[in-house]
Amino acid sequence: MKKVAFITLGCKVNQYETNAMAQKFIEKGYEVVEHTEYADIYVINTCTVTNMSDRKSRQMLRRVKELNKKAIVVACGCYVQVAKEELEKIEEVDLILGNNEKNNIVELVEKFIKEIEKQEKIEEVENVMEQKEFVEFGNILYTEKTRAVIKVQDGCDRFCSYCIIPYARGRVRSRKPENVISEIEKISKEGIKEVVITGIHIASYGKDFKNIKEKEKIGKTGKEYRLIDLLEEINKIEGIERIELGSLEPLLITEEFVSRLKKLEKICHHFHLSLQSGFNETLKRMNRRYSVEEFRKIVNLLRENYEDVNLTTDIIVGFPGETEEEFNKTYEFLKEIKLYKMHVFKYSQRKGTKAAVMKGQIDGKKKEERSRKLIELSDKNEEEYNKKYIGKEVEVLWEEEKNGFYKGHTKNYILALARKNNKEGKSSNLNKIGLENKITKARCIEAGKDHILVEV
Ligand code: SF4
Q1: Nearest to residue 44, comparing CAs of 86, 19, 75?
Q2: Residue 288 Cα, ligand 1 centroid: separation in angstroms?
Q3: CA-proximal residue: ligand 1, atom 6 (nearest)
């Protein structure tokens, strides 16, 4: 409960009006406390009948802030009425109200507080936006048992029209390569075999390196140090056997990028490319900077270069203005390119983004319907893809044992399960080998919607 305190100078009329103001605060749920106590709001009902009254009013206005630096100090009453300019010079005074505004004091104070909070939020965002360097947490060795997530980058400069992240996280800041490498080297010594390279927009890694030193690291070519350079270094780290990439901006995948990536044997053959929509007009409104045709080429490029590639994506349904026709085009495109899995999100308005105020907001039922349709397609694709593995050999990094199954992932990130004891009661070889950071060959014997069943 917010606390309010009053100081009344001068006549009985002022006293009466103070009581009236106090009552209004109480009616709105505030607690009235003594002016010598801590309060959130101090109201000084001033008097100007003599010079002495003026001085006393000024003294009181200055003094209350000592009890709570963050308090809102409100000056009202007769002195305010005749000498507003004098009061405006007093730094401690936050809000000045004339006698005729006393009646609405609660609303005016609350409006003022809201404005301050809004201003504080803007400043907070500006502070984030002004951050120029990656905030280094040091080497983080606390991880899952087999896999470590490594943050290499923060912030985003893309400003997709639906996304609040650039305001919350600021511009692109990349972590120094030597710090990334040092963390991974330490983690690998702890026995971790897999690292997940993550960030807000890892495709932008290195974009902010103005420092020539970073450029020199890759030789005298004068080329910029980017994600692929970092991955080449990580690939050399002893003990690390898998490098999984976090969500990727599709345009990162160029022929040159793939030709270098392919040489890195530790890279997992799973790429999460955020598509968001399969229709160019929708992509334009989203401020995504690729076209459906470019995305198709990227998918083909990866499929030509990685036989067992597993491609996943994010899709937003019900983006403002997404007509039935637009959605159907997206659906047809996704049916055609047949990705392994789609994470489907129903568009939700984020205050402060361009899309939040776009015309043609879609109702919840429509979004639900579209989402269901895409999830069904995704499940179908996933099961079909998994079934192709029946009878084939895969390589699994084992992670944990749960409910009678061992659980791990293949190199292209398919969930692999192995029974601890098979149907005939025969114990799995994994019982002997043990799970702890083991990578083994396994044969797929069955496949379900979201996993393959294997035997070691
Ligand atoms: S959706 Fe991704 S790329 Fe777009 S602004 Fe947000 S964080 Fe950046």
Answers
A1: 75
A2: 9
A3: 163
Using one digit for the tens of pLDDT, what is the confidence trace for 103-131?
889 999 999 988 888 777 777 777 776 77
CA contacts within 13 A on the Cβ side of 257: 18
Single-letter amino acid code for the residue at 7: I
* The pair of three-digit structure tokens given for residue 447, joined into one six-digit string: 């496949």
R_g of the chain computed on alpha carbons:
31
**Atom 3 of ligand 1, residue of closest alpha carbon:** 158
Q: Using the mean position of ligand 1's atoms as its centre, give its distance from the Cα of residue 396 in Å.
A: 32
Q: How far apart are CA 297 and CA 78, in angstroms?
A: 75
Identify which of 414, 347, 409, 412 has the alpha carbon closest to the alpha carbon of residue 374: 347
Confirm or reject: Cβ of 201 under 6 Å from ligand 1: yes
Residue range 220-237, pLDDT digits in tens = 455 688 999 999 999 999
Closest C-alpha to 25, from 134, 132, 108, 125: 108
Domains of the chain with CATH codes: 3-126 (3.40.50.12160), 131-268 (3.30.750.210), 393-455 (2.40.50)
DSSP state letter for 50: S
Structure tokens at 419: 């029974």
- CA separation for the pair 147, 242 (Å, rounded): 9
The neighbouring-strand residues paired with 154 are 173
Helices marked H in 28-139: 51-63, 78-82, 84-88, 105-130
Report the distance separating Cα 178 and Cα 134, nearest Å.
Answer: 13
- pTM (whole model) above 0.90: no
